[in-house]
Every structure is written in structure tokens, then in C-alpha cells.
């Protein structure tokens, strides 16, 4: 089968690779129908991280069951499914408490286990969920990032009627706009430096749009929501957006940090003091899994994608074959072209 394998910094190759097979009685072999490039994939391609040389890359995907092990009872051959790429040990103290996102040995496919940038992938039954075919495979490949965002919201104290600010309107931020609405936010403020992304945020339910490159965020806050927001969601992982997130909440408000930083974070004193003087609750959120594994984040995402309350179709702008992988990664990571969400269609 074809697969995109990572060999080193900016060295990803489309190769003929041995097809995975059913080994354990709970194994499920899945034909990948759509698989997306995550920001963490881009970072690992550029700077590496946990991986084995030559490992098949990728972790956001959906597909069709091609074969099942003898003990599998939840899906059958031919079923549409989504795969949770998080592999946990079930043995550490956090796993024993059902806190799977905190597993001491957590990793995702594409690092120490073959991933989804391939025609086939094999996962244990616990990591595979049946998917309503009406969702579609491309949307199904966005269930994992959606679960990541939902996990963050579940860490917060958000309640109906709250005002929520989303800082950074990439895929994660645009999903956060939709989750804020689902969780009952009365007013959603979208903040980014790209007007195209802000337009998408408005399409997904944002009430106020702020381009922090052309507008003073501090002035906009003073004019539009002087008391501050109930919850700020940081989804870009950049030093400035971290600072912005700390500036926006009201006293006693919350900040959820979902964006993954790819460089050192420097918090300016005036913003750090907001944590202290405003007694902010700053929450780190990691991955998108909980108990019972893979967690409510996956079930609610499947539900709201089926109802249409979660809509990711407008985010997906580019569809390519696996053969185009090396070229598309080079263009994406080295900023040779601008993309929203890229999907491989194996």
C-alpha cells in the first residue's frame, strides 16, 4: 500500500509500505478514506519530536472497516468508522483513575505506531467508533480535532449566557467558535489577524470579529466588552495570543489554553499580573480523551456532526493524493502557499 513515511527533518516520502494485518483478536483494519494534516504534524515535520525513523505519519482520519479480529463486536466489515489515534497504557496511576489525557505513556499514531497517512491503518477496537455515514468521511477526519476542543470546554466552568472570546481562528479556533455556541455562549468574539478566517468564524456563529493586526485589541475590548469576557480560549499557541488571552477575561474569569506552542513562551509582566490581580483560572487542556475511553468528547462530536451543529466542510479547502504529500508539506510548512485544512484522500 501507499503511505507517507517520515525519515527526518522535512524528509517525508510517499512509499510502497507493507500493509497492516490483523494480529490481535481485538484488532480492526480500516481502509482510510480521508485524513487531515494537523498543526502538530507540521511541527513534527519541521522540528521532529517523538517518532521512529520511517514511521507512517498522520492521526486525524476516518474510513471503512476492511477486516476485524475474532473478538470484535462493535463494528463489522464495511462500516463507516472514525479512529481515535491516542494510545494509552491503561497501567499508570492516571489511567487507573480514568484520566487518560494525563497518561504517563500517551502517544498518538504516527509517532511510535503507524499512522493514517496511508491506505490502511490498524487499531484496537477500543480506539474505533462507528460513524453515521451522513457525516461523510472528510468531516469524519475532523472528529479528532473537534474532540480536542470539546475536551478543553469540558475543563471549564462555561454556562449558558456566557461571553466567550476565541483567540486564533485556525481549525481549532473555528471549532471552538462552534463549541462555544453548543455550550450555550450568548456572545462569541473571534480574534485573528486574517480576515478570511474571521469571515469563516462569523459563518460559524461568531458575533464580534476583531482583526488584532489592524485594530487595537485593548481598545476594542474597552469599547465592546469593558468588563471582560467569562472565558477566553487560546487556540494559536503564539506568545502574543497567550498575552491577549490573559487580558480579556473579567475578574475571576477563565482562560483555556488549547493552542500548542512551537517556541518558548514569554508572558509580559502586565499580562502575567492579570492572572494574579484578576484571580484568573488558567486551564491547560491536552488531547481529547476521557473516561470511558475514548470519552464523551468523541460521542458528543459524533452527535453534533450528525445533527449539523458542528460543520467543518467550509474549513476543508484542499484535497490531495498521498503522492502529493512531500510537495504539500513543503508548501505548507515553509509558507510557500496558504491553506486552510488539507485532506489526503488515499
From TrEMBL:
Keywords: Metal-binding, Oxidoreductase, Zinc
All copies of domain Enoyl reductase (ER), residue ranges: 8-310
Enzyme Commission no: 1.1.1.14
Entry superkingdom: Bacteria
SMART domains noted in UniProt: PKS_ER (SM00829)
UniProt GO molecular function: L-iditol 2-dehydrogenase (NAD+) activity; zinc ion binding
Presence of the UniProt keyword Zinc in the record: yes
One protein family per Pfam: ADH_zinc_N
Class of enzymatic activity (EC top level): oxidoreductase
CDD domains xrefs: sugar_DH
SUPFAM superfamilies: GroES-like, NAD(P)-binding Rossmann-fold domains
PANTHER family for the chain: L-THREONINE 3-DEHYDROGENASE
Family, as annotated: Belongs to the zinc-containing alcohol dehydrogenase family.
Name by which UniProt lists this protein: Galactitol-1-phosphate 5-dehydrogenase
